[in-house]
Amino acid sequence: MNKNINLLEGNIKSTLLRLSIPLALTAFIQIAYGFVDMLWIAKLGTNAVAGVGIAGFVFWIANSLALIPKIGMGVYASQAYGSNHKDETIRVINNGLLQALILGLLFTLFSLAVRNVFIEFYQLGMEAEQSAKEYMTIVASAMLLFFVNPILTQSFTSLGNSFTPFVINTIGLVANMILDPVLIFGFGTIEPQGVEGAAWATVLSQLFVFFAFILTILIENGLLRRAITRITLRWDWQVAIFKLGIPAALLSGFHASISMVLNRFMSGFGPTPVAVTSIGSQIESISWNTSEGLQVGIQALVAQNFGAGNAKRVIESIRESFKLISMIGVIATIVLVVFSEGLFTMFMPHDPEAIRLGSIYLIILGLSQAFMSIEIGLAGAFNGLSDTRTPALIGVILNLFRIPISLVLMPILGVIGVWIAMSSTSIAKGVVSMYLLRCKVNRMEWLIENR
């Protein structure tokens, strides 16, 4: 059965919703998994949470690198498919997959080589560092999956099918949720493995997702089967995919690097603020994770219509996308600000200081959620127009300001100063993104009226 949605015709609002709902549901399941995962790890203590949180920054860098083939391939595949160039779509997808394999292998070797130096940089103490090393060693060994699975997900979505990757990723996340407590605390003849169990649960679930994607593609016997079974290295596409994807990857990698510096600042106040930020970011993901999921759908919708030369539909797609992501951000702000203390009590009920700091974190970051959602979602519109540089420049420049703002505020407000720096720059990024995309849309409208 063909599950691809026609993104070139029909009501834009309903098309966007049909494409976006599976992406949003996947994001919510990822959020639920993040909550459950952190709840289990929190039972091992604050040091375990801090250690896994620090190790998580390496995987943030991995996700950043994976954006190179994901964004580049995703945009060009959507544009080729929208312009009805099926053979070119196949070539784009198989070259994107090749690039993901190469980058994944290189980063696996790199992360295993530098893991000890990276973790010891934070000086969190022996117990937290040991947790980070145990977790990172296992997950880094399977890093290739974290590059390939997003490409397979993006391949379906670029063709207008967000339902199939939703089902596969959901089953993988549910498997991870089941494996977590079993491997962390043991069950029956299975010995408790602590932090290592959480790592193995992640690896096994990602392995399942990979095989499910491959099996589905081979059974369906469509365009994607030809894309993964007829691998043809094309240097022109390798270069084009890399050039289009690199700005988004640099933005994400730069964001991760800035966050590492900020975490180093926070670690100076002890492991509790680091643990609070790790848990707080999971709670905060109700907006950023959902917005990132919708960004993929927005990118596909805009890119296919841009490739088809339908400028009016591109503009209307951007407007409807803005309404949707704004609503998500406003809802997130209300939830985080109103229920800040209750949300954090779920994770660390016996640590009053963590609850106090966590509540402050959620209120401060909650105020910027609408702007953060707008920035993330509109990046999909920029990407679909083959402009990956603008959102990257916005993010890099304004994220950089987090360091001096933190340095100014920390002597006065302590760790709260770092969180204010994070929230204020998120607001600025959302405002600038809206303005620059508005300028681009105005230019397109002028061209339509005067052609």
TrEMBL record:
GO molecular function, one term: antiporter activity
Task performed by this protein: Multidrug efflux pump.
CDD domains in UniProt: MATE_like_1
GO biological process: monoatomic ion transport
Keyword NADP: no
Entry's transmembrane regions: 21-42, 48-68, 96-115, 135-152, 164-187, 199-219, 240-262, 324-348, 360-382, 394-420
Protein name, entry field: Probable multidrug resistance protein NorM
Subcellular location: Cell membrane
Principal location: membrane
Record carries keyword Ion transport: yes
Keywords: Antiport, Cell membrane, Ion transport, Membrane, Transmembrane, Transmembrane helix, Transport
Gene source species: Falseniella ignava CCUG 37419
A Pfam family annotated for this UniProt entry: MatE
Family, similarity comment: Belongs to the multi antimicrobial extrusion (MATE) (TC 2.A.66.1) family.
InterPro entries xref list: MATE_fam, MATE_MdtK, MdtK-like
Top-level taxon of the source organism: Bacteria
